[in-house]
Amino acid sequence: MIIRPNLHWFRMLLAWRGSVLPRLLPRLFMIFCISVVAVAAHEHILKVTVRLSPVPFSLIGIALAVFLGFRNNASYDRWGEARKLWGQLLNEARSMTRQALTLPRQALDPADVHKFVHVLGTLPHALRHQLRKTDPAEDLAARLPEPLLERVMTARYRPAALMLWLGEWVQRHARTDAIDQMAVLAFDRNLNGLSDVIGGCERIVSTPLPFAYSVMIHRTVYFFCASLPFGLVDSIGIFTPLFSVFVAYTFMAHEAIAAQIEEPFGTDDNDLALTVMSFYIEDALRDLLGEPQLEVARPGQEDYVLN
Fold this sequence. Notes:
- The protein is mainly α.
- It folds into two domains: 1-11 and 19-45 and 209-262, no CATH class; 54-198 and 274-296, no CATH class.
- Helix content is 72%, strand content 1%.
- It is built from eleven helices and two strands, in the order βαααααααααααβ.
- The chain has a two-stranded antiparallel sheet.
- α3 (54-102) crosses α9 (211-236).
- It is elongated and about 90 Å long.
């Protein structure tokens, strides 16, 4: 994810990092070449002349814009829901940390409470690696004790394994009456909230937008952009390549942005910065324990690439 301060309107025109333009350059060059061919055919340089009426392009363009808008809205809904789920993860984790520090009827071993909070702070890292299908061994080894690390690494769903341990911690202290039943219910509500977060993230990852719908829009966009120069050449002549490339950039960029944010847990420029968010959540819990601040990259005067 690219995070940068608000840019002046002119600098925004020249922004490169974080835009989809670098990916589109080869495709736009293809449209430019097709436009040159259309102009050459119109001027009878080539033996074959292809001329199309611009009226159908106006109708198709309006319909295509509507479909692209729907596609972008659907993709942004997934991106927005993913961000809300990670916000809920922070809230639930903070609530459980506060409960572990304040709800026990008798003082618990501070080291035991800190262990609980540190395991809770490991949960975002485990979830991040599960969503991105990456190896969590290094992050988990730096945060979990050896017996729990072995147990978690043997599990297929490691965030769920960490939640199971958190529930066992609550139950262990409930048996000694250090935590009463009302407090157990409070912990359980937050554990259920964490389960909702994990399940919601898994649902987004495992349920992409229907492939047939994406293919239909993709084919229509490229057919429209490739044939547009032949509909413009009669009216604007040598300016056809310029306007064709601009229109193609508009439609192709919308499709490319929708394809990026459709999978919000990836590592593209416009995906969620899960690595930094994981450290933010862990740091928020450490702050409640009075521990030193973690070093986390923060946006400043220049743009930052967060993943």
